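#structure-requests
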Amino acid sequence: MRGAVGVPDRGNTAAAQLKAGDFDWETIFGKHGVRWLHTGGIFAALSDTTPGLVIEAVKAAKKHGTIVSYDLNYRPSLWKSIGGKKRAQEVNREIARYVDVMIGNEEDFTACLGFEVEGVDENISHIEVDAFKKMIERAVKDFPNFKVTATTLRTVRSATRNDWGAICWAAGKFYEATHRPDLEILDRVGGGDSFASGLIYGLIKHGDPQKAVEYGAAHGALAMTTPGDTSMATLKEVESLVGGGSARVQR
């Protein structure tokens, strides 16, 4: 019953030393026409300077019509040295004004944006999907710039057994991915990132929120069956799982 522990070991990385002015956004978004910018709360929390860089980036992206997606990814261990939860909310609520696709789980929306999910205890042992939907509806009223909002739905039974699913809001409607109860976990790190990348792929490739949330949930599930935080799943494997594929051996 020991819970999983994550250690964001990025203290002396080049990324943590980045600051506003280090990138030529006019060239990136204006000249090269980058279509999509993805970043998130872990990068924003790396140092005193990274929040300013994120804000600069999302403002420049918005100016040039580049789609911005953001994964809230609240990590108390990172924020505690630069202002804690109060600072996290200040930074993330400012960034949120420029985000088109907002991604985050129940703790992320609560800690980073100040929204509450009804009926969730402090250990987040059970999530009522309807309560989470109500929270998302409040969030999109506060931030009408959100075109898509998505979240994973994870109930931790033990470190190796999780219930896993996802929902997505787009244009006033909710879309729910296939629910996978009792998913066996080898290494859960990277499941959320893989959900985000699968969702983004589905939106870019198909423009269909239902397909996008299915791709995200399937990719996240597969990523947690391999070690490390980088997905080893192929597109073929993701599409097989989305299509109802099983764990039956392939020879």
